[in-house]
Design goal:
Number of helices: 5
Order of helices and strands: HHHHH
Helix content: over 70%
Distance between the termini: 47 Å
Shape: elongated
Number of strands: 0
Length: 158
């Protein structure tokens, strides 16, 4: 049944498409934030592997490995929900959980601080670039309405 809904959605999108319809612009903030989360997942995965050597023979090792692996998977999975209203909040929760990994490996606090800085930069700069892109798209659409007889872009074709 899920396959049918995907097929129906694709057919609807294909039926609505016409030549000349521009592809919707992707959010730069989402792309930046996704990049940070994936790289952070790799760092968490390697930290989880380091716990094997640090806690060999400890009864807590299976729990630490499961927690680290779950955090790495959650970081990657969060990339898929960043566009949802609660997606960025989930990203912030994962930033806090990465700091919590510092309880097992104290040097992870430095890594977590670095990734949190990257996360903040990605959100702030991504929002700024998205706003600039929206303004540029608005101005370009206005220009095209005012100059319908001219070429595709104000600069002409390349």
């Amino acid at each position: 049944m899920a396959r049918e809904s995907i097929r129906q959605r694709l057919e609807r999108q294909q039926a609505e498409w016409r030549p000349g319809i521009p592809k919707p612009r992707r959010s730069v903030r989402t792309m930046f934030a996704s990049t940070v989360l994936v790289l952070q997942a790799l760092a968490v995965a390697f930290a989880t592997l380091a716990m094997i050597g640090l806690y060999r023979g400890s009864a807590a090792l299976p729990w630490l490995l499961a927690g680290g692996a779950a955090l790495a998977v959650a970081l990657v999975a969060c990339c898929a929900v960043l566009q949802k209203p609660w997606g960025l909040k989930a990203g912030w929760v994962l930033q806090v959980l990465t700091f919590a990994l510092g309880l097992a490996i104290p040097l992870m606090l430095i890594v977590a601080a670095g990734f949190t800085g990257c996360w903040i930069y990605a959100l702030v700069k991504g929002r700024q670039i998205d706003a600039e892109n929206a303004e540029r798209d608005r101005l370009e659409a206005e220009y095209r309405r005012e100059h319908p007889d001219e070429s595709e872009s104000p600069e002409g074709t390349l």
